[in-house]
C-alpha cells in the first residue's frame, strides 16, 4: 500500500503545488490542503496546531521549507511525522529524489597533510594556532615545513608541543639534518627521503615519504621502494606533481605508472603545487585533483594555504575527498551528493520563469516588496506594480523609497544580492545570504526554524 502524504500550503502556492504534483506522477497518494493563509512561507507550527483539524488519512505531513516552530512536538501531538519540504516548490521533485538517495559523506580514505610552510620564522604558539585551524577544516597531519638555509632552533619544541596537543606531525625538508632531528623529536612522518638518504629511516621511527633521487627518475624511486620493503618498513611514495606548463600532464602519467607498477603501496600527491601556483578558484582544482586521487587510489595529499586565493584549500579538499569516496563507493558520478563544492554556480539557479513570477505578482494585495530572479533578470513587485531590470539602479525610480532610508537600504542590499546571483547563476532567496558552499564561513550557516528571526536593523526604531 502506497504512502499517503498531506501537503500543507498557502493560497498563493496552492495552484502551483497541484500542478507540480500532477507532473511528478509520484508513487504515493496525496492531499493538498490550503491552511487559510496567503503566503505559505509564513506558516508556523503553532498555526498548524490550531488550524489543522483533519489529517486526511495521511501517513505523514509535509509543510513548507520555511515553516517555523517545533515540528517534533507538533508531530507528537498529531500522531504522525510532520517534516519540512524544500524552500522552493519547484524543488519538490528533487526533494523526493534526494530523500531516497541521500549519501553519507562522513567517511573518506584520503589523509590530508596540511603544511605550515614558514614554521622556522614563527613562534610555537602561532604554529599551534594554525594547526588547530587546519585540523578544524579537515587536516589529519600537521606538516612542519623547513626553509632552505634557515636556522630552525625551536623545531623540537614545536614538534613536542604539537604532539602534546594530540596532533599527528610530519617534518618537511630536503636537508638530512632537519629530517633526522625532526624524526628524533617525535615526528610521525618525514618528507622527503630518496635513495641516498634512506639511512635516516634506520635511525628514527617516523614513516618516510619517498621521492625520486632526481626529478622524474622513477628507477631510483623503484629502488627506494624495494629497499623499504626489504626492511618491512611502512612508507609513502610521492612521484612529484609538477606545475602547469612545466610538466603537469607528464607528472600525472608518472603517478599512473607508479600505481600500475605498485598496486598496493601508499602514494602521496602534493596538490598545493597546482592550487597555489594557478590563479584560478581552488575549489574546482581540488575537486578534480581529489577525483584523480580517487581513481588512482592515492590516499595522501599535501595541501597548503599560502596564497590568499588558496585560503580555503584545506576545507575544499576535505569536502572533495568525502564526495569522491561516496561517489566511488556507490559507483556513481560525483553529482547530487553535496552542494558544497558549487561555490560560484548552482544546478538550478532560477526555479521560476518570468511568467510564473508574473502570475504570483498578480495575486499580491499588500505593499511589501517581493524580489525574485529568473533567467531574464531581476524582478521586484508588490500590489502597486511589477518591475524588471538587469541593473538594480534602473529599479530605484519605481520604488518610491526616497524618504525611507531604512527601507531603501534593505532593498539595496537585497537587490545587490539578486544581481550577483543572477550574474553568476546562483539561487537567490529574499532575506537570506547567498550560499557560497565551502568557499566561505557563513555567519549564519543555517536558519533555526524553531525560532523567529528578530527584526533587522532597518526595522528597529532609532533611540
From TrEMBL:
GO terms for biological process: pteridine-containing compound metabolic process. It holds the Pfam family DUF6513. Residues 93-325 form the Pterin-binding domain. Transmembrane segments: none annotated. PROSITE patterns: PTERIN_BINDING. This is Pterin-binding domain-containing protein. It comes from the Bacteria.
